[in-house]
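ESCALATION

Customer reports they have been waiting on this structure for their group meeting. Please prioritize. Original submission:
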Amino acid sequence: MSDPNGEWLDGDDLAEQARRLYEDGRFADAEAALRRALTQNPDRPDWHFNLGRILEDCDRAAEARACYLRCHQLDPGAPEPLLAAAGTHEVEGEHLAAVKLIDQAISLDRTNDDAYARKIRALVRAGRHEDARDAFYVAQEFVETPTHAMVAMAGGLEHEGDLARAAWCYREALRHQPEFTELRTAYARCLARQGEHAKALQNFMHVLREQPGDIGALIGCAQVLARLGREAEAIEKLNRVVELEPANADAHQMLGVLSTHAARHERAGVEFELVLKLDPARNHVRVDLAESLMRRRRVDDAREAIKAFLANGLPERPGNDDASDGAPRNERDRAVATEQYRVILARAAALLSATALWTEAAQVLDRLVEAAPRDAAVWRALARARYECGDIDGGRIASMQLLAIEPTCAVSHHNLGLSALRAGRLEDAANWVSRGLKANRTDEGLRRLRTRVWMARVARALRLS
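Update from on-call: job pushed to the front of the queue and completed.
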């Protein structure tokens, strides 16, 4: 077979041409060259394997898997094609199908540390945590130093929220490979999640001594420094990140938060705006931006920012049964996610109230009371938002809910009395005022309302007479 220049090419020449094209990123041409090579010699397992790699890089997982399995047929003693085929199942979310192929690969080489690690990760992603542990125990039995299996098991344990055992796995893996900086960074993050900030900082700094430009270690170090109250040092690390990687949205977001803490609201606003340009999907950053605008008294701009937050959709409430990728799957992480959800809704509601968007504030607070049904402050804010937007019945319901939690609340008694007065229900109004004053004898608002109710009753009596 000849190339466009007339030179005769055999299968090996075409395979080499495909390799060069692949390295140049010309995947379609590389695929065509390798397929031409396979028409000359269809029994070369390495060519089928390389074609699978090309197809996988083109997001054609099923076709890639067929190539890997053909490679396995031609070279049945090699575990690599089976592991590669398993990877295509994982890309498609078919984790248990991947495990079957990985088990076949392990049966060919029971000392393959990487195979056990991949099996553990696939089982964790499938929610089969006990099976993942069993796979780890088998790896310990057959692999002399199962470093990769330890790292995979550590990730699974972190996913379950078992941070102490995860840290042990990371530590054991580091004992065998102390120079593995990515592993030390993962260990440091695990320690930070446990609250062992001093140890975490030591490990992050160890990585940075070896690799001063390690982005993950710089960001992790900054997070720990901020937790320890060393915010100026944290900002130094983050500034280094944006020097090395100007489009790092995580670093810019942290710089915005730390600038807010330092009352540098102009700088905070710049950072938050940049984050939204880099990653518009970070909707919660619009709340940060709105707050920074409010602190600079740019109320109209803050109103637009918080309206944009609403327009992009409120966050979903974390649920115990949410099994989607990235969802919290253990009690600790669910608690953290739920608290973050409550905080972002509370901040959004406060901004909406401050910018007089009362209807929108009530909508957000309706979501918030579902997550915090016993929080008196939330019911108090909801009652006011409903009254302010003209929903008197809704305000009364919220006030009643608040009284069930906080029976002596003067504001609720006042608002219920006032709504009854405006509706002409003078006996109800007098009753609410009386009950409120029993609990709050010196409350000026209730005393003034008592006078208004008394005058309204006098006026009604005069009209009747």
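Sent to customer with the following note: The radius of gyration is 32 Å.
Escalation resolved.
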